[in-house]
Amino acid sequence: MSDTRTERDSMGEVEIPAGMLYGAQTERARRNFPISGIRFDRRFLRALGTVKLAAAEVNRDLGLLDDRRADAIARAAGEVADGDLDEHFVLDIFQTGSGTSTNMNANEVIANRAIQLLGGEVGSRDPVHPNDHVNMGQSSNDVIPTTCHVSALTALEEELLPALERLAGSLREKADEFDDIPKAGRTHLQDATPVRLGQEFGGMASQVEHGIRRIESLRDALGELAIGGTAVGTGINTHPEFGRRMAERLSEMTGRSFREAENHFEAQGARDALVEASGALKTVAVSLMKIANDVRWLSSGPRTGIGEISLPAVQPGSSIMPGKVNPVMAESVCQVAAQVIGNDAAVTVGGQAGNFELNVMIPVMIHNVLQSAAILASVSREFAERCVVGIEAVEERCRRNAESTAALATALAPEIGYDRAAKVAKRSLAEDRTLRDVVLEEGLLSEDELNRILDFRAMTEPGIP
Per the CB 3.0–4.6 Å rule, which of 68, 105, 149, 317 could disulfide with 324? Predict the structure, then answer.
C-alpha cells in the first residue's frame, strides 16, 4: 500500500501522505511555510468548524445544497469543531496573510471526511468538493475574519471573563477582611498619609472590575461578522440572505450575539475589532502587572522589606538559600503581562496591513489575541487561587508603619500650620521618632487633641464627621 496518494489542484498534481485528510492546496502551503511550528489553536479550529457547519446548514436551507451533501459536510465540520480532526490541520500561522491556506485546509479536510462518511474515495472530490460544496457562498476573505470574531468572543466569554471575575472577587474579599487595618500610604515610593490595607485591596479589585467592563464592551465589535462579503465585500457568488442567516445560525449555535456586518468593505478591509480587543487585553495586563507588583512589594522582606502582608508559600524559592520563599505567583502574572503587551504590538502592526479590500496579517493577529486571552485567563485563575485567597495581613507592622510615617504631619497642618507641621515632620525623621511623640514633647497639642486628629479611621474616610 502506498504511503501517499496523488491529488490535483489548479497548479497540477501533488503527493499527499495517505493517512491525511487534507488535500493539494494544504500540502503546498505546508511545504511553503515551515516557519515556526506554531499552529492555530483549538479555539480557532473550534470556531472554524462551527462556521463551516453553519454554512452547510444555511446553504441547505436556501436550497443551494442537497440534503445528502449538506448533512455529510455538517457532520464532518462538527468533528472539526469538536477537535476530532485536529491532526489534519497542519499549517503554520505564518502563512498567506488572508488565512486562505487554513480555509482551504478546512475545506479539504471536511470534504474528504464527508466523502468517507458517504462511502467515497478520499481525494476524489466526489460527491463532495472542497470549493464547490464546503466553501459554497464563502471566501477565505470573509470566513477567516468571521472565525476570528467567533473564536475571540468565545474565548473572552468562556475563559477570560470568569477568571477575571474570580480574581476580582478574591481581591474584594481581602478588601473587606483588611478594612480596619491602618498602614502607611506611599506615593513616589515615599511615605504618604495613612490608608487602610483594605482600601489598597479595594483599589486592586476595582482595577480588575474595570478590566471586566472593558472586555465586556468588546461584544459589540466582535459580534459583527464579515461573512457574506465573499472576496472583496461585494458578496459575489453568494446568496443575498447568506450573511444574515449565517449570523443568526452562529448566534444560535454558540449562544453569543452575532450580526452581519453593517459594511462589508470595512469588515474585510480592516481588522480594527481585533486591534480594539488586543488593546483591551493589554490594558488588563497592565492592571494585573500593577497589582502583582504591589503585592510583591507589600510582602517584601519579610524582615528587611515592607512586610505588611504575607503570601502563601507555594514552593521553595532558592536552590542555594535554605528557607527562602519567593512571590512566584506574582512574578508569573508579570511575565504574562509582558507577553500580552508584546502580543499587542504585533496585533497593532498587523492592523495597519489592511490594504484596500483585505487585511493580510490576519493569522498572526488572531493568534496573538487568542494567546493573550488564554494566558490572562490562566494566570488570573492561578493568581487568585494560589496567592490572593491566602494573603494574610501583618497587622502589627501595618499599624506601626501608619504611626511612623512623617506624612501624618498633613493632618496636623490645619491645626498648627503648614510650616510648623513641616518642622515637626523633619524632626521626627531626623530623630527616628513618631510624630506623635514629637508633638507631645513640644506641647503643640494635647493628647486628646492629637488622638482626635490622628484617628486613622477618620483620616482615611474624610467624610466621617
Answer: 317
